[in-house]
C-alpha cells in the first residue's frame, strides 16, 4: 500500500494537497497528489512503497490543517462483483493489518457520498463478520488498535486501508456529530463546541474550561460562542456593536461591551483566561490582534477563526501561523499553536493558541510562578 488518503471539506482539495506535499517533503517522503475538485478527498501517492506507512506514523495528524482523516490505502478497487463485494475488500486488507479494533465503511462528504452511505451501512455488518472470522478485526471493538477503513468513492468502487488510533481522527468520516442546542442563539455555536472537542483533550476540560473562569468574546453577537462559555459557567465580556440574545444577558454571566474589538482592553486583564474571536475581518489583522493579546498577557488561551480569501488560502493561513509563532517567540512566550478546518467551518479555519510560559521576567506567567 503506497498511498495516503486524506478526507477534507469539498472545495478544499488543493489546500489539502499542498499541505500534504509540503509536510511529506519535510520528512523526505516524496510523491504526488491526485486532486479532483469538490470530491472531498486527496490521494497522495508515494514513490517509495513503505513511505505511506511511514507518513501516517510520523506526521502528527493533529498538525494538519485541512485533513479530516489520514489513512494508508492500496490501489482503487473497481467494479466490485454485485454478488460478493466482501471477498475482494477483505483480500485487499489481509496481510496489511491484523487484529484491528474497528471497521468504518465511509464515503466522501459530498451529495454523492450521502447516497453511498446508505449502502455503506448495509455492507458494514457482513464485512465486519468476515473480517472477524479472518483475524483482520478483533472480536470486540478496541480503540487502542488500528482502524480499518473502506472508503467508497462511487458505487462498486472503493479504497481499502487503515489508520492508527493514536494518530487519526476518532470520528466516523472525520466528522464529530454534535447536536445543535435548541436554546443557542446561532448555529455557529457548534464551531466553538467542535473546537473544544478537537483542541482540548477531554481529560483537561475540567481544568481548562472550568466554571468561574473569565472569558472575552470578540465579535460576539448574537451570542453562539458566548453561549458555549456561559454553559461552562464562565463570566464573559461580549464585545460587539450588535444585539446579544436576551437569554444570555438574563444569566447574569455576560457583560455586553458595545466597542470595537480591535481597540477593546479586557476589564480583568490579569485574570482573564480565554479570548475567543469570530469577527469577520482580514485573517492577517485577526492573527496580529490575537498575538497582541497573548503577548500582553490578556489571556492564557485563544480560539479564533481566520476567514479565508478566495485564492492562496493555504499560503495565507501558513503565513499567519508563522507570524504568530515568530512574534510570540520574539517576546519570550512559549505557546502551542494548532489550526484545523473544522467540520462546522466553511470558508475559514479555526486556530487555537495556548500560552505555556513566558521566558521574559515581568510577564504575567513569571509573576504567577513566583
Ligand atoms: C460571524 S458574526 C459572530 C457570530 C458569533 N460568534 C455567534 O456565534 O453568534 C461576526 C460578528 O463580528 C462583529 N464584528 C465585526 N467587526 C467587529 C469589530 N471590529 N468589533 C467588534 N465586533 C465586530 C459583527 O458585528 C458580527 O456580529
TrEMBL record:
Protein name: Ribosomal RNA large subunit methyltransferase M
InterPro entries named in the record: RlmM_FDX (IPR040739), RlmM_THUMP-like (IPR048646), RNA_MeTrfase_FtsJ_dom (IPR002877), rRNA_MeTrfase_M (IPR011224), SAM-dependent_MTases_sf (IPR029063)
EC assignment: 2.1.1.186
Main subcellular localisation: cytoplasm
Role description: Catalyzes the 2'-O-methylation at nucleotide C2498 in 23S rRNA.
SUPFAM superfamilies: S-adenosyl-L-methionine-dependent methyltransferases
Gene3D superfamilies reported in the protein's UniProt record: 3.30.2300.20, 3.30.70.2810, Vaccinia Virus protein VP39
Any one GO biological process: rRNA processing
Entry annotated with the keyword Cell division: no
Gene name in the database record: rlmM
Cellular compartments annotated: Cytoplasm
GO MF annotation list: S-adenosylmethionine-dependent methyltransferase activity
RlmM ferredoxin-like domain: residues covered: 1-71
Family: Belongs to the class I-like SAM-binding methyltransferase superfamily. RNA methyltransferase RlmE family. RlmM subfamily.
Record's keyword terms, sorted: Cytoplasm, Methyltransferase, rRNA processing, S-adenosyl-L-methionine, Transferase
Subunit description: Monomer.
Primary enzyme class: transferase
